[in-house]
Amino acid sequence: MKNQLITDATLVSNYIKGDESALGILITRHKQRIYSFVYSKVYDKDIAEDIFQDTFIKVIKTLKKGSYNEEGKFLPWVMRIAHNLVIDHFRKSNRMPKFSNSGEFSIFSVLSDSTLDAEKSLIKEQVERDVRRVIQELPEDQKEVLVMRMYNDMSFKEISEKTGVSINTALGRMRYALINMRKIIDKHNIILTN
Amino acid sequence: MAKLYSKHPNKEQISMNPKKETIDFLLNYSKALRIVKYDKMKFEALLN
What we know:
The structure holds two protein chains of two kinds. By secondary structure, chain A is mostly helical. Chain A has two domains: 2-100, Rna Polymerase Sigma Factor, Chain: A (Orthogonal Bundle), CATH 1.10.1740; 118-187, Winged helix-like DNA-binding domain superfamily/Winged helix DNA-binding domain (Arc Repressor Mutant, subunit A). Helix content of chain A is 72%, strand content 0%. Chain A is rod-shaped. The relative contact order of chain A is 0.07. Chain B has two helices and two strands. In chain B, strand 1 and strand 2 form a beta hairpin. Chain B is rod-shaped. Classes of the chains: A mainly alpha, B alpha+beta. The A-B interface holds A 20, 23-24, 27-28, 31-32, 35-36, 39, 48-49, 52-53, 56-57, 60-61, 64-66 and B 16-19, 22-23, 25-27, 29-31, 33-35, 42, 44. Chain A: Residues 26-95 form the RNA polymerase sigma-70 region domain. Chain A: Pfam families: Sigma70_r2, Sigma70_r4_2. Chain A: InterPro entries: RNA_pol_sigma-70-like, RNA_pol_sigma-70_dom, RNA_pol_sigma70_r2, RNA_pol_sigma70_r4_t2, RNA_pol_sigma_r2, RNA_pol_sigma_r3/r4-like, WH-like_DNA-bd_sf.
């Protein structure tokens, strides 16, 4: 392999002098190591590709500007640039967390559309109408407590104050209201499920 | 000896090389980049 005989230092120096093909040899020689290193940190092919590209853009600029000091350490220097860019990438992604939808986990298993479709909203309306009709069947005192508790969201203390009965009586009426509603539902075979 | 049915790690290893397009881009970028020096300043000029 002729390419392997030429040292990195020579290739770098040739490149600085204007030999563009030297860069091709350098990239070909080290691409696997650099790309694997980046990929082993980011575990994403596209991001690894971007970081690999940015690494060499930096290398090209530094070499062309003549700011590179050749000390026979081309690869460690490139690896250091890649390493710094990987750190930059994680800093950026920490500041701006994003959810990548990869692998088995799907974001849509967590996020769902909570709005009901036409069929479900019809069923919901029907169930609510049936419940209201069942409530109308209850004795007046139980109906009163249940409406205050469930529809007006009042506490049993407030209910007892409003109706003039003790809290225990209000609790008892609520209990009987529920028992009676279940009885009515069973009796008329009403299905109250969504 | 018990048979191991797990996949051999080497077979699963994907090719760890950047795309050809990336390399081509870098080589073209390098050809297009000129550094213009003026006094003590350096300017980058992309010729395409």
